[in-house]
Amino acid sequence: MTSKKLVNSVAGCADDALAGLVACDPNLQLLQGHRVALRSDLDSLKGRVALLSGGGSGHEPAHAGFIGKGMLTGVIAGAVFTSPAVGSILAAIRAVAQAGTVGTLLIVKNYTGDRLNFGLAREQAQAEGIPVEMVVIGDDSAFTVLKKAGRRGLCGTVLIHKVAGALAEAGVGLEEIAKQVSMVAKAMGTLGVSLSSCSVPGSKPTFELSADEVELGLGIHGEAGVRRIKMATADEIVRLMLDHMTNTSNASHVPVQPGSSVVMMVNNLGGLSFLELGIIADAVVRSLEGRGVQIARALVGTFMSALEMSGFSLTLLLADEPLLKLIDAETTAAAWPNVAKVSVTGRKRSRAAPSEPQEAPGSTTAGGLASKRMALVLEQVCATLLGLEEHLNALDRAAGDGDCGTTHSRAARAIQGWLKEGPPPASPAQLLSKLSVLLLEKMGGSSGALYGLFLTAAAQPLRAKTDLPAWSAAMDAGLEAMQKYGKAAPGDRTMLDSLWAAGQELQAWKSPGADLFQVLTEAVKSAEAAAEATKNMEAGAGRASYISSARLDQPDPGAVAAAAILRAILEVLQNQGV
User: Is 59 one of the annotated binding-site residues?
Assistant: First the structure.
């Protein structure tokens, strides 16, 4: 079965892709009658060397993404994974020559078709009197024994584009540029790994991998690699790659050793998520620095892809200060990243956390009857939530994730651990503030954020007073904050329904002579009734709002948990005879 691709036609996909890039970038122009993109300011290059590169399409953003001042003058694109036509290469050479350039350097990846077609175009251009040189880049470090064809050209070619572009922009001559980039290429190696193959538009995947396999040492055209390994962690795969790339018994190794300074390039082969790419970059940095290698520059992104291949390549280039100046030179190429012009190694990567605001004297006093009572309340709440874990998870499965009980249990265990460190603050405002921070850090999920909001806001009215009207105001403040940021309202089938029902009953605390237990008992009963009533509600907020109401025939787990917390508080206070 052929793969699905968002194209207009298989035959025209390469033309359409290049046309789209040029249409969105005023700095580029198409060469009429050819699949060639050139700088739109060619006339500004009079008296300088032009740089042309290219190859098959399907490697985007290579190669057209690297056209610009300080990089390539133009590129010639073939069909997907197919070398460009000789006629188009020759047309590009003629176009830059007629714009007044003093010579053209062809930067070619080491593949037979590219070597033949660019080489033939070069010979024809030279026969016309146009100065043309050609460098063939082979940076593949996969093969332990070199074959007659030599090392394949991979993502390291992009670094050659950058170095050559900086030299050309500085006015260096054609032969000297060719000589310098050839030397740079010898100090570079690239190795690829992938979790999947890719598929040319209109075709099936180029090879198959089982679920527990990874392809090591593959190229950029969907061809299989040199070895298949078992699926492993990012750290383990990176370690294996570096071992292979730097092993001196490997004929294509890159001579990196402790004390070496390198430019590191982590390249997405097309289908890897940004999350995975970040994990891999971290693994590469840690592994290289653990080997005593200095990372002078780090490039992470998509530079030379292989369609949708879910993998990455790692390029290492030995670098000294003169080379780093060329890497750091300015360029307008759209796909070149904004690389920091400082060494990665040796940089401080973290800073101290901000200090906590100083608390009022006596506000954190622990111990005493009030503190002990609060500890008992919290212990009962934690025991209640831990006992409800499976029940809450079962209720939550109707909404898809089934982790409400787990989330509340995580909060309970965090509170238990905190209580073991010492008695809680005697101040209600400080207690709620401390609990807010704890739940925001440890509970996780939207529940942690909502409880954190509620407790943070509820603490404010209790800073001045702690009488019954102040506790009622605290409930009001907490509910207001939950609605403001959570966007839920009473009747939306959320934890707010239970808390809102309780809050309405607690309004009675604002009346003179209100009874603590009578009002709190009615508040708990209302909360429990509201929680039960949520099974007849249509979800208006939270993840459950995306689920058909026909499937939601159980109470909302968050509402059940909130009611259970209030019940636990009431029982402890009654037992203590507050």
Answer: yes
